[in-house]
Amino acid sequence: xxxxxxxxxxxxxxxxxxxxxxxxxxxxxxxxxxxxxxxxxxxxxxxxxxxxxxxxxxxxxxxxxxxxxxxxxxxxxxxxxxxxxxxxxxxxxxxxxxxxxxxxxxxxxxxxxxxxxxxxxxxxxxxxxxxxxxxxxxxxxxxxxxxxxxxxxxxxxxxxxxxxxxxxxxxxxxxxxxxxxxxxxxxxxxxxxxxxxxxxxxxxxxxxxxxxxxxxxxxxxxxxxxxxxxxxxxxxxxxxxxxxxxxxxxxxxxxxxxxxxxxxxxxxxxxxxxxxxxxxxxxxxxxxxxxxxxxxxxxxxxxxxxxxxxxxxxxxxxxxxxxxxxxxxxxxxxxxxxxxxxxxxxxxxxxxxxxxxxxxxxxxxxxxxxxxxxxxxxxxxxxxxxxxxxxxxxxxxxxxxxxxxxxxxxxxxxx
Length: 415
Known about the structure:
Blueprint lengths: L9 H5 L1 H21 L5 E8 L2 E8 L2 H4 L1 H16 L2 H5 L4 H27 L1 H6 L2 H28 L1 H4 L2 H11 L1 H11 L1 H28 L5 H22 L5 E3 L2 E3 L2 H4 L1 H15 L3 H10 L3 H20 L3 H8 L1 H18 L8 H8 L1 H10 L3 H5 L4 H4 L2 H24 L2
């Protein structure tokens, strides 16, 4: 074919930029959807590699698929640049910690003393006046501040031995993949709006070029190839404009910089809020300490302090207790009390949540330090979500554009 002399209607050419714009918009929207959804693999699963499903006619969102890696990259930045867990825990005041735990410890010791006494000397315990029993609980309560203060001070010195903050955050994201999605979606909400809209703008622009070419040269391959280029280029441009250039470039009265990087202050606030609400909250920190890979170290530390506490608490009762039950039973009872304290104290640790959240104040720390990151470091917050699979997202846009180009050819220009 040569110059356009085939009698096509003007509207057939006029509609091309709008179709191209729609293709650009659609491919970008699809790319975003495929980045985050579905959270779990959907399709025909054939096998697994490193616990990741692989199969035919199926898909799992790129971020959920690589939740562990994404979380590791993201929180490697956080734990090396934003948080010093030892410095964070040193903000706690051991004396204040013992104060907020005092009421719970009083009730706990009342329960433990009654339980142990009924086991080791039930007859004697039943005959004791209630005033005497209450006095023993008061003695235990008066010794508890020193116990809790010393325990928290020891924990602060050895926090790296009882809490693996990176393991905690990564496992939280792996077990709850929607959390990783939420972090990226809320931090990049304006960038994702731009990606969707820019698909239409860039597509419309390329559609105008496509229209001009097709007006003069109506080769059947033009529309499919143009569709592929529109889908490919709109996705590529959208991703590049978000993260490039890294540093501001002054051109006349305009300053050009990647859209995401321009919003460093705003994103820092969102990143800190979402992480501290969803992942790094006090309850999660304590759960990681109590059940995480280093929990044995924590309980060994707690038991050591519980033994010292028990010695001080019932030391004055030793002559009376030994006479009532014998030295061997008394030693066994002390061990039992220490064991019960170390086992049951974690059940009331929630009384410290409010104070610890206020004292640690991780949200403020993350927010302020994140604002101070270099452009290269800040880019690493969101870019890992796209970087490794950028070519796949771009290719999806190209293939979809190719399909639409073929359909467009048959729908508008078929004889």
